[in-house]
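Forwarding these from the shared drive since the link keeps breaking.
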Amino acid sequence: MKKQAGIDWKSIFSFPYILYTLLGSLISVIALDGFLIPNGFVDGGVTAVSIIFEKAFLIHISIWLIVINIPFVYIGYRLVGKTFAVQSMIAILVTAGLMLIIRVPVITEDKLLMASFGGFLMGLGIGLVIRGGGVVDGLEIIAHYTKKRVGFTTSEIIMVFNTLVIIGAAVEFGHEAAMYSILVYYIAMKTSDYVVDGIEEFTSLSIVSKKDQEVKSLVVNEFGKAITVYKGERGYLPTSYHLKYDCDIVVAVVTRLEIHRIKQKVVQIDPDAFFFVQSIKEVRGSYLRHHDRSN
């Protein structure tokens, strides 16, 4: 194992980290205290185990949040980095502390609403903390490390662990609560993914057009996007397989907000243009640096 760098205290005391951690922890507490715990709903991970243990052993959830997370934070310290581990432990302590001092009244008795809004708020809180650089759930530390090694998303890795947690919820709170917990987990997962990735999640847009030169000029000069060009052929239609034409296939890395606008402009140039869109797990290199500077 490589020797780790020291703790980056500048990042830990930065305004974005403090803001994301406080806001994310507060929203998580509202979700837990006002929506999930009163109904025995769980969202997965260490928070779910803490809810189950609170019911089983009658010890406040804040204690379990700290105790159960300690081994995972240590693993994060060893495998991910010192700064990441410190940021995660701070977020966990803040969440546990807020659980002790904040009391959130039950807003509704409708279980579907409780599960839906509880999952949404929990995902929002978790996502904000992750954007700040830490986590509030120890299983996410394992997922953060594993994601770097195998390429799966954090949500996919955590889902494996949470299957066992849902089974535990069924035993402790009943099958109905466990089924609602699946809904809570799904909504929280989708919300946290959206918050972490944001509306600027990178996507690969490929364009095949007979007016490829005009398309290249449009994407680069009007939208300010770097492109990659593949030499290809268009044609090969079912009714005219023998017809084919050389063309440049234009590929650009764009955000979800830009896809529709680019497609509209391209269709104005070539109504018969062909598009296909692919999700991107990660973007690195000169394009990303250019994008960061332009924002």
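-- next protein --
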Amino acid sequence: MRSDVFEADGARLYHEVRGSGPALLMISGAGGDAGYYAGVAEELADAFTVITYDRRGNSRSTGRSAEPMKLAQQAADARRLIDSVAGGRALVFGNSGGAIIGLTLAALHPQVLTGLIAHEPPAVNVLPDDDPDRGFFADMAALYAEGGAPAAGRRFAETTRGEGTYRWPDDLWKRFLGNQDHLFGTEWPGFAGFRPDTEVLKAAPFPIVLAAGAADRGAYYARPSVEIARRIGVPWVEFPGIHMEFLRNPAIFAAALRVPATQMLSCEGTFGRRSSAHRGPRQ
């Protein structure tokens, strides 16, 4: 593993690079830390140049600000990282808020992507108007305003299936706790307001796949993936396990990710190309 720091619009972005082969950029969600994907990156380093990073304002990166996070800036950071480290093109995987950033990157900077796998973007604004899950971000913001990061963090964990059933690496957990106020106080509004640009994503010149974990059917962060896939006419696939299966079982998650990643990069493959219907069950 090689680590370095990259200058990007007033921030120093910590990133890690493993392996060789086609570039695979992995974008993390809440807590924005490269450590989420360390195990998966090690598993995939035999076939990909895997790039992970601490997002702006999180963990070992700088750039924390009192101003609300802008998804366009997060996408610009990812684009600059691809330009600098990956030679200008990369396959992108994002989980949760990282999937939201990946979808934003695909809409704003399509020239740097060879493909996108968006795993469980919590894009609750695509759900029906009367769906109770549409209030998730507002409810969490109110809880943070009342009880601070500890109260919001506990509730956040309670809403995420599987959390508490396995142990996080100690260093990652410590960094995540240090990121909580930044998450709920600064990043939250950006994620809450996200709406995918369906017309632009429909016209993307690269394959896109939406995905969710098998154990997460019906969850507020899994159901939007099905709806986005339907709206833009791309495949939906089911991954093993929970929202953060890459932390609980990195080898299993990496094996599942390897299949669409390899197919999407194959000139002969059609996986992730436009289709009239998504694959997989409605949730």
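The chain has one domain: 2-265. The domain at 2-265 is CATH 3.40.50.1820 (Rossmann fold).

- D.
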